[in-house]
């Protein structure tokens, strides 16, 4: 049987900031949903189902908040699903919504992801209590720093690569009106002079804690035909998971990430991602994850990812722009961060990315990961519908 | 929409569950889940590597820690990496996600599991955190108090009375006598008022448990199961969160989901209802138009065992198992979420004619 093609016809996000004290959680998500509807020129009544995602409920202290948010998202009388796959959730949520369309269960679906991190302290929300984990991890940075060290040792990358990524992403963020961090006085020296947090991760090489939401309207072929602006077409999408901790796990380049990318490329008919993909929004919460994921995603050979970064290939005007929006390093409402990657990829192929638009972007990858580098979700979107 | 679009049919081909218990202190969630996963796979002769898609349902708040589901994945044996997803909902909704995945043709088989340990905390207090965090949750109205509001509304409307509620409890727990997995079975005293008009007997047991099912499409289902329980339709709907804007004596979302699932097209012989409180069974029977010809909750339902996050998936599993055993030809399964039946899922399962 053939799947229904899935199109993105509406995208909306909030201006991401450290604390949105002017809105409730419901107000925050409705803002993003409203903007997505406006972009698609649709009304609430045109939506058949709502798929919502966010990271742990402990971040806001609300258990299963989709119940409380049903009214704000126009879901009353409709199906509503709540996805949670750790940091990859924003991407997974979009893929679950896409499946509803692909399976022809629904024609038009609103999908949304959010985090209002100012309601709590994410670092401690991420620090799993004993006996589940060793104590003193102190947030995600403490977990990932040793794996970055492993990458540096294996690849021989110079110590400056992380700073180059941060400097690039923060400059890209200046072109994105929705990005959280707008550091107009950013310089490479300032990044390198910032305090060391979790050696080798410096303060300016880490993501912020943001309040924000991102929404998309996904629809079928006939919905796309009615769309007022160019749709982005899903050419491939996949999720992969592997266990948290086990002896054979490669934290530098997890097998699940490689498999997930390979599945997406297979679906999209991509054989040479470096040449056939015009840009990538990659989940990089700590700067060193750019070169690491470039290798994991097949854009560079093993140990070669940092060379692309160093050569400027991943700059906005480079040969393979990465995180044109400023990325997770500039904006991190955790549960929404994956969906922002997916949405920014769609904005690019729709030609709607404004100042951070890559000229002629036809195929762009959106990527998210979560847990201890164990959950992956990705999609590849294109300006043209899939062949089949 | 609902009934399987296109030409693909999906069935429940295997079901397993724990013996549900008041506490399982000596077991981690993973340890509680592992035997169930092994058992459900054994039913089909499959191994983890044979499963195309895995989806689970659980809630961090029961475990009292963020990302509790991530470690449960270790129990699945997700190596080499698997295609996998998770809903922070009852496992019935994980099954819905897996069903759509199978309809796309991207997968032929799916493992769906759900688990919940209510014993580490006070579940009545924990569930208050589901409520509107600005206006309602700060008042800490607990799940029993909210169910009591619904019960009183039904009594005030003349839809039921306390003896009728007691009869619901007695019948479900009598049925549970034959269920080796049930936590509370046989004659149970109605007891003292917990929150008027509800007595302890009107309320579910608090317990820990897990459930798992395997779904398969088309011929794969026939290969794996002598009598697959075909999902003829499945749909779910949510209502407003605020209790003040809902008619608590009715369940519009259940009725709509049942319509979309095709439940009213032909009579069902069995219904497994996720009604943790006796008044909810009254509401659901009305919304689903179940008369005395239908065997309701032959497993004992949620009044006999209510492992939160798994109790809805258990209803689908129990209904499917009756079809597998030839005890039912067309069964309805229902799952609920949120205060006073806010969100409801209905699945219609059928066995092939005998």
Number of helices of chain A: 14
Number of helices of chain B: 11
What proportion strand of chain B? 15-25%
Count of spatially separate domains of chain B? 2
- The run of helices and strands of chain B is EHEHHEHEHHHEEEHEHEHEHEE
- Summarize the main sheet of chain B: 10 strands, mixed
Radius of gyration of chain B: 19 Å
What does this structure look like?
The complex is a heterodimer of chains A (388) and B (354). Chain A has 14 helices and 11 strands. Chain A is of the alpha/beta class and 388 residues long. Chain A has one domain (6-121, 208-382): Thiolase/Chalcone synthase (Peroxisomal Thiolase, Chain A, domain 1, 3-Layer(aba) Sandwich). Chain A has a 9-stranded mixed β-sheet. In chain A, strands 5-6 form a two-stranded antiparallel ribbon. The relative contact order of chain A is 0.20. By secondary structure, chain B is α/β, with parallel strands linked by helices. Chain B folds into 2 domains: 10-121 and 206-224, Peroxisomal Thiolase, Chain A, domain 1; 123-204 and 229-351, Peroxisomal Thiolase, Chain A, domain 1 (3-Layer(aba) Sandwich), CATH 3.40.47. Helix content of chain B is 33%, strand content 20%. In chain B, helix 1 (29-44) packs parallel to helix 3 (68-76), helix 6 packs across helix 10 and helix 7 (162-175) crosses helix 10. Chains A and B meet through helix 2, strand 3, helix 3, strand 8 and helix 9 of A and helix 3, strand 3, helix 4, strand 8 and helix 9 of B.
